[in-house]
Amino acid sequence: FTTGNCAIIDFYYLMEERHVRLKLKQSGRVFDAIMFKIDKRVKEKIITGNKINILYKIEENIWRDFKTIQLVILDLF
Description:
single chain, RecJ OB domain-containing protein, RecJ_OB
């Protein structure tokens, strides 16, 4: 899937900044997303308030018996 004009509301890095978890807002809706194996190009775009376009897949995230839907970002631009 692709979605454009997503505002970065919040983010934090995981695993010594190799992955990033983001909270994105688009058209009034808020989504949780994660991106794995990020590089310098991606880090330069991840700034709170920035608007990005994302290429992603949807997955069910299960953590401590709690299920949520998350976007797994494959690329952003």
